Amino acid sequence: MFHAVYANGSISAAARGLNVSQPAVSKVLRHTETQLGIRLFDLVRGRLVPTDEAHALFREVDEVFGRIASLQITANNLRNAGAGHLRIGVAPSLGLEIAPAAISAFRKKFPSVTFDIKTLHHNDVLRALYERECDLAIGYDPPDHPRLKSRKLSAAQLYLIARPGHFPSVSETLDIAELSGLEIVSVNGSGPIGDLVETALEKAQVEVREIISVGTYYIAAALVRFGSGVAIVDEFTARSMVSHGLDTIEISPEMRFGVHAIWLEDRPPSKLGLRFVKAIEEALQK
Question: Which one is predicted more confidently, 282 or 165?
Protein backbone atom coordinates (compact mmCIF):
# COMPACT_ATOMS: atom_id res chain seq x y z
CA MET A 1 0.00 0.00 0.00
CA PHE A 2 2.83 2.37 0.91
CA HIS A 3 4.61 1.68 -2.39
CA ALA A 4 1.42 2.33 -4.36
CA VAL A 5 0.61 5.60 -2.55
CA TYR A 6 4.18 6.88 -2.89
CA ALA A 7 4.46 5.90 -6.56
CA ASN A 8 1.04 7.21 -7.58
CA GLY A 9 1.02 10.35 -5.45
CA SER A 10 -2.45 9.93 -3.94
CA ILE A 11 -4.65 7.47 -2.10
CA SER A 12 -7.28 7.50 -4.86
CA ALA A 13 -4.74 6.68 -7.58
CA ALA A 14 -3.18 3.97 -5.39
CA ALA A 15 -6.62 2.44 -4.79
CA ARG A 16 -7.34 2.34 -8.54
CA GLY A 17 -3.97 0.78 -9.24
CA LEU A 18 -4.47 -1.90 -6.58
CA ASN A 19 -8.15 -2.38 -7.43
CA VAL A 20 -9.25 -1.82 -3.82
CA SER A 21 -11.30 0.87 -2.06
CA GLN A 22 -9.86 4.19 -0.90
CA PRO A 23 -10.83 3.54 2.74
CA ALA A 24 -8.89 0.26 2.61
CA VAL A 25 -5.74 2.07 1.46
CA SER A 26 -6.17 4.80 4.12
CA LYS A 27 -6.66 2.19 6.84
CA VAL A 28 -3.56 0.20 5.93
CA LEU A 29 -1.50 3.38 5.58
CA ARG A 30 -2.52 4.57 9.06
CA HIS A 31 -1.77 1.11 10.46
CA THR A 32 1.67 1.14 8.80
CA GLU A 33 2.52 4.55 10.30
CA THR A 34 1.40 3.32 13.73
CA GLN A 35 3.48 0.15 13.50
CA LEU A 36 6.57 2.05 12.31
CA GLY A 37 6.09 4.92 14.73
CA ILE A 38 6.76 7.53 12.01
CA ARG A 39 4.71 9.72 9.70
CA LEU A 40 5.04 8.76 6.05
CA PHE A 41 2.96 11.50 4.40
CA ASP A 42 1.85 15.03 5.22
CA LEU A 43 -1.29 16.60 3.78
CA VAL A 44 -0.25 19.85 2.07
CA ARG A 45 -2.90 21.85 0.19
CA GLY A 46 -4.99 18.76 -0.28
CA ARG A 47 -2.10 16.65 -1.57
CA LEU A 48 -0.10 13.88 0.09
CA VAL A 49 3.56 14.83 0.36
CA PRO A 50 6.08 12.13 1.39
CA THR A 51 8.15 12.88 4.47
CA ASP A 52 11.93 12.48 4.57
CA GLU A 53 11.38 9.16 6.32
CA ALA A 54 9.11 8.04 3.48
CA HIS A 55 11.76 8.90 0.88
CA ALA A 56 14.33 6.81 2.77
CA LEU A 57 11.90 3.93 3.22
CA PHE A 58 10.80 3.95 -0.42
CA ARG A 59 14.33 3.31 -1.67
CA GLU A 60 14.39 0.06 0.29
CA VAL A 61 10.81 -0.91 -0.60
CA ASP A 62 11.36 -0.20 -4.28
CA GLU A 63 14.42 -2.45 -4.26
CA VAL A 64 12.31 -5.24 -2.75
CA PHE A 65 9.71 -4.74 -5.49
CA GLY A 66 12.47 -4.93 -8.08
CA ARG A 67 13.68 -8.24 -6.65
CA ILE A 68 10.11 -9.58 -6.68
CA ALA A 69 9.79 -8.64 -10.36
CA SER A 70 13.09 -10.40 -11.03
CA LEU A 71 11.83 -13.49 -9.20
CA GLN A 72 8.67 -13.51 -11.32
CA ILE A 73 10.72 -13.24 -14.53
CA THR A 74 13.01 -16.06 -13.41
CA ALA A 75 10.07 -18.33 -12.51
CA ASN A 76 8.34 -17.57 -15.81
CA ASN A 77 11.50 -18.27 -17.80
CA LEU A 78 12.05 -21.57 -15.97
CA ARG A 79 8.48 -22.58 -16.72
CA ASN A 80 8.71 -21.68 -20.41
CA ALA A 81 12.19 -23.00 -21.07
CA GLY A 82 12.27 -25.77 -23.64
CA ALA A 83 14.20 -27.29 -26.48
CA GLY A 84 12.34 -25.21 -29.03
CA HIS A 85 12.78 -21.81 -27.41
CA LEU A 86 15.94 -19.69 -27.22
CA ARG A 87 16.40 -16.69 -24.94
CA ILE A 88 19.23 -14.59 -26.28
CA GLY A 89 20.77 -11.35 -25.02
CA VAL A 90 22.59 -9.25 -27.60
CA ALA A 91 24.64 -6.07 -27.51
CA PRO A 92 22.46 -3.24 -28.92
CA SER A 93 24.60 -2.69 -32.02
CA LEU A 94 24.55 -6.41 -32.82
CA GLY A 95 20.78 -6.14 -32.83
CA LEU A 96 20.87 -3.81 -35.85
CA GLU A 97 21.88 -6.41 -38.45
CA ILE A 98 23.92 -9.35 -37.13
CA ALA A 99 21.35 -10.91 -34.79
CA PRO A 100 18.37 -10.38 -37.16
CA ALA A 101 20.33 -11.95 -40.04
CA ALA A 102 21.36 -14.92 -37.88
CA ILE A 103 17.83 -15.47 -36.57
CA SER A 104 16.35 -15.33 -40.07
CA ALA A 105 18.86 -17.87 -41.39
CA PHE A 106 18.42 -20.06 -38.30
CA ARG A 107 14.62 -20.20 -38.55
CA LYS A 108 14.84 -21.29 -42.17
CA LYS A 109 16.60 -24.42 -40.90
CA PHE A 110 14.58 -24.75 -37.70
CA PRO A 111 11.18 -23.10 -38.33
CA SER A 112 9.61 -24.40 -35.11
CA VAL A 113 12.14 -22.63 -32.87
CA THR A 114 10.93 -19.47 -31.12
CA PHE A 115 13.05 -16.66 -29.71
CA ASP A 116 13.04 -14.16 -26.86
CA ILE A 117 15.58 -11.45 -27.71
CA LYS A 118 16.80 -8.85 -25.21
CA THR A 119 19.32 -6.08 -25.77
CA LEU A 120 22.01 -6.13 -23.09
CA HIS A 121 24.61 -3.55 -22.20
CA HIS A 122 28.00 -4.82 -21.08
CA ASN A 123 27.32 -4.35 -17.36
CA ASP A 124 24.01 -6.24 -17.56
CA VAL A 125 25.34 -9.50 -19.02
CA LEU A 126 26.12 -11.33 -15.76
CA ARG A 127 22.86 -10.27 -14.08
CA ALA A 128 20.73 -11.26 -17.08
CA LEU A 129 22.32 -14.69 -17.27
CA TYR A 130 22.20 -15.21 -13.51
CA GLU A 131 18.52 -14.22 -13.28
CA ARG A 132 17.71 -16.39 -16.31
CA GLU A 133 16.51 -13.51 -18.43
CA CYS A 134 18.53 -15.16 -21.16
CA ASP A 135 20.35 -18.47 -21.63
CA LEU A 136 23.08 -17.05 -23.81
CA ALA A 137 24.52 -13.60 -24.50
CA ILE A 138 26.22 -12.33 -27.65
CA GLY A 139 28.38 -9.31 -26.88
CA TYR A 140 31.81 -7.78 -26.82
CA ASP A 141 34.83 -8.73 -24.68
CA PRO A 142 33.00 -10.15 -21.64
CA PRO A 143 33.43 -9.05 -18.03
CA ASP A 144 36.15 -10.86 -16.10
CA HIS A 145 34.11 -13.03 -13.74
CA PRO A 146 34.71 -16.60 -12.47
CA ARG A 147 31.14 -17.69 -13.31
CA LEU A 148 31.30 -16.55 -16.93
CA LYS A 149 32.49 -18.65 -19.84
CA SER A 150 32.79 -17.40 -23.40
CA ARG A 151 33.76 -18.31 -26.93
CA LYS A 152 35.26 -15.76 -29.29
CA LEU A 153 33.34 -15.67 -32.56
CA SER A 154 35.01 -12.83 -34.41
CA ALA A 155 37.04 -9.65 -34.11
CA ALA A 156 35.88 -6.17 -35.05
CA GLN A 157 37.20 -2.63 -34.90
CA LEU A 158 36.12 0.90 -34.13
CA TYR A 159 35.40 3.54 -36.74
CA LEU A 160 34.89 7.27 -36.75
CA ILE A 161 31.59 8.40 -38.24
CA ALA A 162 30.97 11.95 -39.45
CA ARG A 163 28.74 13.87 -41.80
CA PRO A 164 30.00 14.09 -45.39
CA GLY A 165 32.63 16.80 -45.81
CA HIS A 166 33.55 17.00 -42.12
CA PHE A 167 37.05 15.77 -43.04
CA PRO A 168 37.47 16.91 -46.67
CA SER A 169 41.14 15.89 -46.90
CA VAL A 170 40.61 12.38 -45.48
CA SER A 171 39.78 9.49 -47.79
CA GLU A 172 39.67 6.29 -45.70
CA THR A 173 41.98 6.53 -42.68
CA LEU A 174 42.34 9.22 -40.02
CA ASP A 175 45.22 9.45 -37.57
CA ILE A 176 43.88 9.56 -34.02
CA ALA A 177 45.90 12.74 -33.38
CA GLU A 178 43.59 14.60 -35.77
CA LEU A 179 40.72 14.14 -33.31
CA SER A 180 42.30 16.66 -30.94
CA GLY A 181 39.84 19.39 -29.99
CA LEU A 182 36.94 17.89 -31.94
CA GLU A 183 33.39 17.82 -30.59
CA ILE A 184 32.58 14.16 -29.94
CA VAL A 185 29.42 12.31 -28.94
CA SER A 186 30.54 9.77 -26.34
CA VAL A 187 28.89 6.60 -25.11
CA ASN A 188 28.86 6.11 -21.36
CA GLY A 189 28.93 2.69 -19.71
CA SER A 190 30.16 1.08 -22.94
CA GLY A 191 32.47 -1.36 -21.18
CA PRO A 192 35.55 -2.64 -23.02
CA ILE A 193 34.95 -0.52 -26.13
CA GLY A 194 34.79 2.66 -24.07
CA ASP A 195 37.98 1.62 -22.29
CA LEU A 196 39.61 0.97 -25.67
CA VAL A 197 38.82 4.50 -26.87
CA GLU A 198 39.90 6.13 -23.61
CA THR A 199 43.22 4.23 -23.58
CA ALA A 200 43.95 5.11 -27.22
CA LEU A 201 43.24 8.81 -26.67
CA GLU A 202 45.40 8.90 -23.54
CA LYS A 203 48.26 7.10 -25.28
CA ALA A 204 48.14 9.55 -28.19
CA GLN A 205 47.79 12.47 -25.72
CA VAL A 206 44.65 13.60 -27.53
CA GLU A 207 41.98 15.65 -25.79
CA VAL A 208 38.51 15.83 -27.29
CA ARG A 209 35.41 17.80 -26.33
CA GLU A 210 32.68 15.42 -25.19
CA ILE A 211 29.62 17.51 -25.99
CA ILE A 212 26.96 14.83 -25.51
CA SER A 213 26.97 11.57 -23.57
CA VAL A 214 24.51 8.82 -24.56
CA GLY A 215 23.72 5.21 -23.68
CA THR A 216 24.10 3.43 -27.03
CA TYR A 217 26.19 3.74 -30.17
CA TYR A 218 23.07 3.84 -32.30
CA ILE A 219 21.91 7.04 -30.57
CA ALA A 220 25.42 8.48 -30.93
CA ALA A 221 25.26 7.75 -34.67
CA ALA A 222 21.83 9.35 -34.96
CA LEU A 223 23.12 12.51 -33.27
CA VAL A 224 26.03 12.67 -35.69
CA ARG A 225 23.61 12.23 -38.58
CA PHE A 226 21.75 15.34 -37.43
CA GLY A 227 24.91 17.42 -37.08
CA SER A 228 26.05 16.95 -33.49
CA GLY A 229 29.79 16.42 -33.85
CA VAL A 230 31.43 13.09 -34.65
CA ALA A 231 31.50 9.74 -32.83
CA ILE A 232 33.70 6.68 -32.46
CA VAL A 233 31.49 3.61 -32.79
CA ASP A 234 31.75 -0.14 -33.33
CA GLU A 235 31.89 -1.27 -36.93
CA PHE A 236 28.39 -2.80 -36.84
CA THR A 237 26.84 0.56 -36.00
CA ALA A 238 29.13 2.24 -38.54
CA ARG A 239 28.07 -0.14 -41.33
CA SER A 240 24.40 0.44 -40.59
CA MET A 241 24.94 4.21 -40.90
CA VAL A 242 26.38 4.07 -44.44
CA SER A 243 22.85 3.96 -45.85
CA HIS A 244 22.14 7.22 -43.99
CA GLY A 245 24.95 8.99 -45.88
CA LEU A 246 27.50 9.23 -43.08
CA ASP A 247 31.21 8.90 -43.76
CA THR A 248 32.77 5.85 -42.12
CA ILE A 249 36.48 6.42 -41.49
CA GLU A 250 39.09 3.99 -40.18
CA ILE A 251 41.18 5.24 -37.27
CA SER A 252 44.93 4.77 -37.09
CA PRO A 253 46.13 2.98 -35.05
CA GLU A 254 43.36 0.38 -35.18
CA MET A 255 41.25 -0.24 -32.10
CA ARG A 256 40.06 -3.86 -32.19
CA PHE A 257 37.80 -5.89 -29.89
CA GLY A 258 36.28 -9.36 -29.77
CA VAL A 259 32.71 -10.54 -30.33
CA HIS A 260 31.83 -13.42 -28.00
CA ALA A 261 29.13 -15.90 -27.09
CA ILE A 262 28.82 -15.75 -23.27
CA TRP A 263 27.14 -18.07 -20.76
CA LEU A 264 27.33 -19.14 -17.12
CA GLU A 265 29.86 -21.85 -16.35
CA ASP A 266 27.25 -24.03 -14.62
CA ARG A 267 24.62 -23.44 -17.32
CA PRO A 268 26.30 -24.27 -20.64
CA PRO A 269 24.36 -23.71 -23.88
CA SER A 270 22.02 -26.41 -25.13
CA LYS A 271 22.66 -28.13 -28.47
CA LEU A 272 20.14 -25.73 -29.99
CA GLY A 273 21.94 -22.80 -28.39
CA LEU A 274 25.28 -23.95 -29.80
CA ARG A 275 23.70 -24.19 -33.25
CA PHE A 276 22.53 -20.61 -32.90
CA VAL A 277 26.02 -19.53 -31.86
CA LYS A 278 27.22 -21.04 -35.14
CA ALA A 279 24.56 -19.01 -36.99
CA ILE A 280 25.83 -15.82 -35.33
CA GLU A 281 29.39 -16.74 -36.27
CA GLU A 282 28.37 -17.23 -39.90
CA ALA A 283 26.52 -13.90 -39.93
CA LEU A 284 29.64 -12.19 -38.57
CA GLN A 285 31.80 -13.81 -41.26
CA LYS A 286 29.44 -12.60 -43.98
Answer: 282
> Euclidean distance between the first and final Cα of the chain, in Å?
54
> Which domains occur in the chain, in start order?
2-79 (1.10.10.10), 82-153+258-285 (3.40.190.10), 156-257 (3.40.190.290)
42: left (phi over 0), alpha (psi -120 to 50) or beta: beta
Written as one letter, the residue type at 140 is: Y
pLDDT at 233 over 70: yes
Q: State the helix-helix crossing angle for 11-18 and 22-36, rounded to 10 degrees.
A: 110
Please give the C-alpha separations between residue 69 and each of 22, 57, 59, 116, 237, in angstroms, as whole numbers: 25, 19, 15, 18, 32
135-172 as b/e: b if 16+ CB within 10 A: bbbbbbbbeeeeebbbeebeebebbbbbbeebbeeeee
Summarised one tens digit per residue, pLDDT across range 192-229 is 888 888 889 999 999 999 999 998 888 999 999 999 98
pLDDT of residue 83: 52
Output the pLDDT for position 240: 84
Listed residue (227, 278, 235) closest to 102, CA to CA? 278
- Taking CA atoms, 6 is separated from 14, 144, 163, in Å, by 8, 39, 47
Q: What is the DSSP string of 148-183?
A: EEEEEEEEEEEEEEE-TTSSTT-SSEEEGGGGTT-E
β-pair partners for 187: 214
